[in-house]
Amino acid sequence: MANVGKRKTFSIEDKVQFIRKLQNGESQSAICKEFSLSKSTVATIWKNRDCIISTYEKNINRCKRLRKAEKENVEEALFKWFTLQRSRNLPVTGAILQAKANEFAELFGEKSFVCSNGWLDRFKKRHNIRSGKVVGEAANVCSSDINHWMENVWPDIIRNYDEKDIFNADETVLFYKLTPNQTLKFKGEKCVGGKLSKVRITILVCANMNGSEKQKLTVIGKSQKPRCFKNVKKLPMDYKSNKKAWMTSDLFQKYLRQWDKELAKKKRKSFY
């Protein structure tokens, strides 16, 4: 029995390549020989060239839109986060913004995204973000919405809890190798800065409403066994690690489950 050759299949990118070669003056015979094609296959591709190119360009534009949308997700989340921090009068540096942007990118599954200095500069220009000095006097952040929530919503939420059983937690980042952004200098001397360190640890702090109880700090670093923390398990904190030194949903869930077990042993009901 004669061997029947497998029918070759070509991607739309391959077909566009054949069409471009024909448009550039190459003969059908040359293309048949180069890619081991039959003359009828090449003729069919050429006959349907307009449809093939149109489909190819639509797919290319769609991919571009998807990549743009993914970056827009990161940008939108970062802008909302930045707006929230500034509404709280919390200082935000460029290094913190970059770390947060990369964190959002990982959250959205945008593996190719890296918050470079160039991307950060463009982000700041797009949203009119400028560098400024932090002043000591706090701004007045009261508003009718906040007052309404505190007077009408909050009391209903905590009605069945004592102040000692109401807890609040938040995380903060310590860039412990970051150098000061100001220096004493001689008159007329130029100040030339180096590259800002992005080495960090994340710290989770938690305390109850009346301040009578504080949870142990949870510190998250990159190294599983950091040399600077000898006998880390004996320190008055819980140390965790991952490659980004970030608080992840998995770490936070483990934190809550462990605390819930401790509360259950004491038969204690808390609001968190």
From TrEMBL:
Residues 28-48 bind DNA. SUPFAM superfamilies: Homeodomain-like (SSF46689). Signal peptide: none annotated. GO terms for molecular function: DNA binding. Pfam families: CENP-B_N, DDE_1, HTH_Tnp_Tc5. Coiled coil: none annotated. GO terms for cellular component: nucleus. Residues 62-133 form the HTH CENPB-type domain. Keywords: DNA-binding, Nucleus. Residues 1-52 form the HTH psq-type domain. It is found in: Nucleus. Gene3D superfamilies: Homeodomain-like. The keyword Nucleus applies. This is Tigger transposable element-derived protein 4.
